[in-house]
Amino acid sequence: MPKGILAGVEFEIDEDGFIQEPEKWSEAVAEDLAKDESSITPMPPDQWRLVNYIRDYYLQFGVAPPVRMLCKKNDFDLKYVYEMFPKGPAAGACKVAGLPKPTGCV
Amino acid sequence: MTKAATITRERHLGTREELSGFLGSKLNRNLAVYFQSCQRCGLCAETCHYYLATGDPKMIPGYKIEQVRKLYDRQRHDWRRKLSPWIPGGDGLDEQELLELTDVVFGRCTMCRRCTLTCPMGIDTAMIMRAARGMLTLAHKAPKGLQDTVDIHVMKGNNMGVDSEEFIATVQWMEEELQKDIGDPNAKIPIDKEGSKNLWVLNPREVMYFPLLLQAQAKIFYAAGESYTLSSKHWDVTNYALFNGDDKDATTIAGYVLEEADRLGCDTIICTECGHGMRQLKYMAPIWLKRSDFKVRAFVEVVADYIETGRIKLNPSVNKERVTYHDPCNQARSGNYIEEPRVVLKKSVMDYVDLNPCGRNNFCCGGGGGALTMSQYRSWRLEAAKVKADQIKATGAKIVSTSCHNCIDQLAEINRHYNLDVKVVNTCELTADAIVLPRRMFLSTGIPVDVGEQGYLKDPTLWNHEVAQFLATNEGFGELKEEHWRVLDYVRDYDSRNEAWPLPQRVNKDLTLNIQHLFPASPEVVFKLAGLAEPRDGINWHEGSVQGN
User: Fold this and answer.
1) A11 touches chain B (CB under 8 A)
2) Virtual CA dihedral for A12, A17, A22, A26, nearest 10 degrees?
3) Extents of the domains making up chain A
4) Which of B51, B68, B23 is nearest to B112 (CA)?
5) Do A66 and B376 count as a contact with CB atoms less than 8 A apart?
C-alpha cells in the first residue's frame, strides 16, 4: 500500500486516495484531503457539517450513510450535496471523512 | 473509536491440490479449444486498449492468455511434477507466481472481449480470464475491493449492504420527488406489488448515492404507463462474482433476483442501466441456475421500445448540446444492444454523434471486469483509458452518456484525469428530461383528466366547471368570472348545434361583449377552455354570416 503525508502524519492511502487508518484521522487531515474533493477550501461550515455527520454515522454503524440521510438529517438539498463535493458523496465526502472506499460501482 | 463493521466472511482457502486442479475442473469444450488454438498471429494486439495506450508487448491479449495456458500446461504436464509429485513447486502456485498472475488477469484485462472480435480463432479471452480469476479467488488473491463487494452482496443481499428499511425510505423519498416533478400526487414507485409484469432491479449506487436516477427511470415508466415493481428484499442487479470467477457465489447472487421475480410473479426483469448486471442475468444466470423461464431486458431496450411504439413522447430541444454515447462492452459487444441506445438518444437530444469506433467495436472505458473496485490497479486503469479519452475528444461532444453505472464512474474519472471538460450522464437522465407528459388533473371525485400537448382535453366528455378552471389556470388565467362562463357556455352550445366553431366576431355580437378583452391570449384558448375536441385537421369555422343572423 502506498504511503502519503497528510497534515504532517504518514498514512497508508490507497490509489483512489482513501486513507486506510481511520483512527489516525483528524480535522487537519480532513482539510488536506478536502483539497482535491471539496468545492471550497478550507471547508466552510456546511461542508464540515456533512463531513462530521458522515464520520459520526460511520463510527456508530460501521457503514457510510446513504445520501438520503445526509439530506434529511442536515436539511440539505440533494443538489447542494453534489455541489459541495463534486465527485459525489461516496468518492468525495466519505473520503474526506476518513472512510474506506465503498464497495460496488463507485 | 468504535470498531467499524468489517466484512467477516469465512471463506475456504483452496489447498494446493484444489488450486492445481481448478483450471482442469473448469475445462469445458470451449475452454479446451481456446487453450489449444491460439496461432500467435498477434492480430489481437491492436484491439486492446492496454496495449494501444502503453505499447508494452506484455499487454497483448495473446500474451496474457498464454500466462494462463502455460500454468494449466505446467499443472498437467510438467515433468518435475510427474517425477516428484511430493516436492512442492513447479505447479505455478508459489506465492510470487500467484501474485504475478493476479496482476495479469485482474489488473491488465477488463474482460471487454474486443480482442475476441478480431481473433481468427474466436478465442474468448474473458472466459479464460474468468477461469484464472476463479482460481486466484480460491487462493484468496482476488483484490480486496472486489472480494469485499462479492462478500457483502452474498451476506447482505446487495453489494453496499443497504438494509430493507433504508431502501424503502429512499424509494419513497424519490416517489415524493417524482410527484412534485410531474405534478401528480398519485404517481407511484411500486414496491412488492405482486402480479406486476416487470421486476425492476437497481444498482445499489443509485440507492446510496445517486437516487435521482431512480426518479428519472420511474418518470419514464410513469409516462409509458408501465406495469412494474421493485422488491424490498433483493433489488440489486449487480453480480461481482462474474468478475472474481466464483461460480458458487455468482449462482447465489443471481438466485436472489430470480427468487424475487418468482415471489412477485414477474415474468420479465428490467435491469437499470448496468452493463454487467444485465449480462449476468440474461446470459449467465440461465446456466448457473439451470433455468430459462424468465426474460431479461436492459433499460435502454425498454425505452427504445416505448419510443418506437409511441408509448412516450420526447422533446429533444431541452437537450441542445452535442451528445455522444459510450457503448458499454457488456451491453454492446456481449449483449447486442447497438441500435437501441441510438434510437433513444436520437429522439432525446438535438445533436447526437457516435464515437469512432463505436457499437460492437467500441473500446472499453477501462473500468470493465470490476476494475473500479481494485484500487491497486488505478494507475494502469487510467493509463489505458487514454484511448477512450482521445475518442471522446475527437467528437467535440459536451456530454458523454452511457447506460452502465460502472462505465459512468470510469468516464467521470477519465474526464478529470484527461481534462476533457465534458459532462458525464446516464442515458436515462437525458430521456427523462426530454419527456413530454400529458398534463393531468384529478377531479374532486378522484377521476383523472388528461390534457393533450396542444392544451385540449383528451376526453371532452369529462368537461365541467372544475375542469374548465383547471384548464384556465394551465393557460395562465386566474379565476373565471361570470362573463367568461357565458362565453364558454355559448361556445359549447354553438358547437353542439352546428358541429363547427363560431367566429369570434359572432360571439361578440351575440353576447354583446369583447372576447379579446376577456381572453386576451388568442381566440383559440376559448375553445380549449370550453372543452371542445382538438381539431386535428385545422379549425372548422362556421362561416355563417355574422350580420345575417
Assistant:
1) no
2) 100
3) 25-96
4) B51
5) no
Question: Which CATH number is B16-141's, of 1.10.3230, 3.10.450, 1.10.1060, 1.10.3470?
Answer: 1.10.1060
B203 touches chain A (CB under 8 A): yes
What's the CATH code, domain A25-96?
1.10.10.370
Tell me which fold the domain B152-308 belongs to: Glutathione S-transferase Yfyf (Class Pi); Chain A, domain 2 (1.20.1050)
Ordered alpha helix ranges (H), B265-353: 275-279, 285-289, 299-308, 339-348
A28 Cβ under 8 Å from any chain B Cβ: no
Q: Are B268 and B241 within 8 A, CB to CB?
A: no
Q: Rounded to an integer, what distance in angstroms lies between the CA atom of residue B169 and that of residue B187?
A: 16
Contact B210 A88 (CB under 8 A): yes
Which among A58, A59, A67 is the nearest to B208, CB-wise?
A67
pTM listed for this prediction: 0.86
ipTM topping 0.90: yes
Q: Is A94 a catalytic residue?
A: no
> Which chain A residue is nearest to residue B152, measuring alpha carbons?
A103
The domain spans of chain B are 16-141, 152-308, 313-435, 439-542
CATH classification (class only), B313-435: alpha beta
pLDDT in tens, chain B (549 residues): 344 455 689 999 999 889 999 999 999 999 999 999 999 999 999 999 999 999 999 999 999 999 999 999 888 876 766 777 676 667 888 899 999 999 999 999 999 999 999 999 999 999 999 999 999 999 999 999 999 999 999 999 999 999 999 999 999 999 999 999 987 888 999 999 999 999 999 999 999 999 999 999 999 999 999 999 999 999 999 999 999 999 999 999 999 999 999 999 999 999 999 999 999 999 999 999 999 999 999 999 999 999 999 899 899 999 999 999 999 999 999 999 999 999 999 999 999 999 999 999 999 999 999 999 999 999 999 999 999 999 999 999 999 999 999 999 999 999 999 999 999 999 999 999 999 887 777 778 878 888 887 788 988 999 999 999 988 877 778 889 999 999 999 999 999 998 888 888 889 999 999 988 888 877 788 999 999 988 877 777 887 655 444
Helix H or strand E encompassing B105: helix B95-107
